[in-house]
Amino acid sequence: MDRKIRVLVAKPGLDGHDRGAKVIARALRDAGMEVVYTGLRQTAEMIVSAAVQEDVDAVGLSVLSGAHMHYFRQVVAGLREKGADDVLVFGGGIVPDQDLPELESLGVGRVFGPGASTDEVVAYLREAVAHRSAQRS
Amino acid sequence: MKPKSRWLEEEYAEATRSLPERDVPFETLSGIPVEPLYTQEDLEGFDPERDLGYPGSFPYTRGVRASMYRGRLWTMRMFAGFGTAEQTNERFKKLLAAGQTGLSTAFDLPTLMGYDSDHPMALGEVGKCGVAVSSLADMEVLFDGIDPEQVTTSMTINSPANAVWAMYLAMAERRGADLRKVGGTIQNDILKEFIAQKEYIFPPRPSVDLVIDTFEWGPKHAPRFNFVSVSGYHIREAGSTAVQELAFTLADGIHYVRKALERGLDVDEFAPRVSFFFNVHNDFFEEIAKFRAARRIWARQMRDVFGAKDPRSWMLRTHAQTAGVSLTAQQPLVNVARVAIQALAGVLGGTNSLHTDSFDEALALPTEEAATLALRTQQVIAHETGVTNTVDPLAGSYYVESLTNEMERRALEYFRRIDELGGVEAAIEEGFFAREIGDASWRYQREVDDKRRIVVGVNDYVQDHPEVPIQLVDPSVAEVQKERLARVRRERDQAKARAALAELEAAAREGRNTMPAFMACAHAYCTLGEQMDVLRQVFGVYQEPVLI
User: Fold this and answer.
1) Which of A89, A104, B38, B344 is the most exposed place for a label (fewest CB within 10 A)?
2) Pick from B110, B239, B544: CB nearest A14
């Protein structure tokens, strides 16, 4: 019996726009995933710590403030430091196309911009998490 | 003429037998069912004198001025800000040169959250979504070459509003301006932060007290300044319906009035300077009806419930902004069409001030070209469409008047529910707004994902588009700010700064009006972070309950 996919939805930094994060959290939950949402104003340390503590498969960062490069870098590095680099880091928000290649090179998965459907995000996570656990075993 | 019900059963049914209605939901964005036709019958019981009136007269359904745009166009006030004060000052001047008639300031997240640019929490965020302002020194650069007696300035600032307003006024005073002539607006609407935008620092109780300090101090010291802009824009952007936006905004306004009265203030002293800020979203007629209903509801509350005597206390004056959340990253040029239609709705709704979003809204901060185009959109409406030739042209429309009535009815129903919970602050703690907004935004997302609601370019008419240049923020802004802050802290009169901060703490602890202390802090070049840290010590910081 496959265990449920566990996802941490996180709002790093000062940005308080949580409409998207909450809709995604609800969609993932409806799709049968276990969702942890730690609320606003999380530091990278808090996110990494929660990810490890909750033993999640994926961490989704929601950033609309323009500070995405900073936070993705910190969270990816933080997870690696804790030996949790098998955790998928993905995200959403306002991230210019030109920043996507650098994020990809950091090992970040998909970043969903405005207009992404919740079905797309669910499908992506199911596939990406299954792919990763297949790689591990 | 046969009654509408029979026409629907006969001719209309006949017509839809051969040509069935399209399979789309015929309802407004709020979910109000829309009928195929509206007639005189839908206005049964409508009393033009009681419900409509003349513009510039109670209940102001038709507008707050008798002549509205025939006398003066709405203020074209484009929200702007990024990077350093120098960079934003330049953008301010370009927009003024392009014909905008008022300034509107966007601050970065550290400033909005009461952190100096060199605070650890500010890392990665300085200047990214607005201008960094950490002290009077930044404010002086931000408004360099701009006369605060000649131009009105709006500042979108909430938790630290008292401190930032004081910096603006101190800047004006140091230029020799007469504060009685300095006009503008501070958003300063902390209730909607707890409800929607989430840029709160302290818990609700002391936060509201800080707002009421401005209600008390403002009319005496800066009588041309609107010390609050009670906002629905953010509530709407967070996912509420138009009805919720209308109801929650006015409920917040009512709450502030109650608190000010509890403090012993005279309603006619502060009410004339209470202003509002609404969203203008996609459902054209619903938005127009929303503005008209808002004015009528507010007028009735102020005169008949609060007993205000001065007609200026009854008037709902409002800024409006086209809905950022409705704009798409896909085929961004299509946003020009959306914004034009939304702006037109705002004008037909009688807004007093308007910001039009740039087409690159969903991608990044506006480029100069995109912001200019958005401003030109307002100018086209003002000068080329003829809609400004007469006041409230849609009055008397069976649909618009019915919708205005319906929105008022539904808003009043929300007032009842909020009062039953014990008022706005109690409703916030109970999670009422979080649930309403969360459910509405979930419903909307499902409608779009299921293609019951079409968003052009996103779930239909999808097509690749050429890349659009975006506004970049120079990353050196954080370094510039760090140096400037170091210089400010080094060069100011340390004793004066310490004394001002001590007085702020004392005023806060003793429950006295904090504005005089904020003014002293501004003049003494106390930084924003220093002032907010004092208050964090006194009031504590707020953690909202996590509700999905």
Assistant:
1) A104
2) B110
Does residue B189 sit in the same domain as residue B251? yes
Half-sphere exposure of B57 (CA within 13 A, CB side): 7
Mean pLDDT value across residues B229-243: 98
Give me the domain span that covers residue B434.
Answer: 48-69+101-106+147-449
Does B347 fall in a domain? yes
Inter-chain Cβ pairs, chain A and chain B, closer than 8 A:
98
Q: How far apart are CA B546 and CA B434, in angstroms?
A: 10
Q: Which residue has the higher pLDDT, B316 or A137?
A: B316
Do B348 and B228 share a structural domain?
Answer: yes
List all residues of chain B from 177 to 196 with a beta carbon under 8 Å from chain A. Answer: 193
Residues B377 and B526 placed together within one structural domain of the fold: no
Give the domain A6-136 fold.
Rossmann fold (3.40.50)
Which pLDDT belongs to residue B73? 98
pLDDT higher than threshold 90 for residue B308: yes
Q: Each residue of A14-61: pLDDT tens digit?
A: 999 999 999 999 999 999 999 999 999 999 999 999 999 999 999 999
The ipTM assigned to this model is 0.95
Domain count, chain B: 2
Q: What integer pLDDT is reported at residue A136 of this predicted model?
A: 72
Q: Has residue B200 been placed in a domain?
A: yes
SS3 content of chain B, % helix, strand, coil (to 5): 55, 10, 40
Q: Are B523 and B440 within one domain?
A: no
